[in-house]
Amino acid sequence: MKNRIFIISTIILGSFASISMISGNIIIQEPWKIPSKYVNMDNPYATASDDEKVGRILYTKHCKSCHGSKGHGDGTKAESIDTKVPDFDTDSFKKETDGSIYYKTIIGRDDMPSFEKKITDEEERWLVVNYIKSLVK
């Protein structure tokens, strides 16, 4: 009886290990829970097209390595991250409010780091949001 339990346990554990290897190491995250404060937040720099260069520079410095130059989630570090890096060129992303993008970009979670201390200027934060949105027009 003990041998049967051992054999069955070994088969079950082996199956889980095999499934893990086959499916890769990508972890599917829970949907973001964006506080309504951010969802409804107005972008005070939504029309700041003159400052696209600032947004591009900050995106290149902080975001491009994971999200890629066009925002498709294909940056050089994307494969080394446990969770799937999102593609900004999807219908669901295009429906995001500026405030939701701000929250995800600045506050972050899990593999998406917070940039609250790296991008401290409020206008620059919004210019990154603007640049990200410009990638998917």
Note down, in words, how this protein is organized:
This protein has one domain (29-134): Cytochrome Bc1 Complex, Chain D, domain 2 (Orthogonal Bundle). Helix content is 50%, strand content 0%. The relative contact order is 0.18. The protein has 7 helices and no strands. The model is unreliable at 16-24 (pLDDT under 50). The protein is mainly α. Keywords: Heme, Iron, Membrane, Metal-binding, Transmembrane, Transmembrane helix. Pfam families: Cytochrome_CBB3. It comes from Gilvirhabdus luticola.
Keywords:
single chain, 137 residues, mainly alpha, Cytochrome Bc1 Complex, Chain D, domain 2, 7 helices, 0% strand, globular, Cyt_c-like_dom, iron, Cyt_c-like_dom_sf
Name the beta content range. under 5%
Q: What's the end-to-end separation, in Å? A: 64 Å
How many E-type strands? 0
The radius of gyration is 20 Å
CATH class: Mainly Alpha
The gross shape turns out to be: globular
Query: Could you list the spans in which at least 5 consecutive residues all have pLDDT below 50?
Result: 16-24
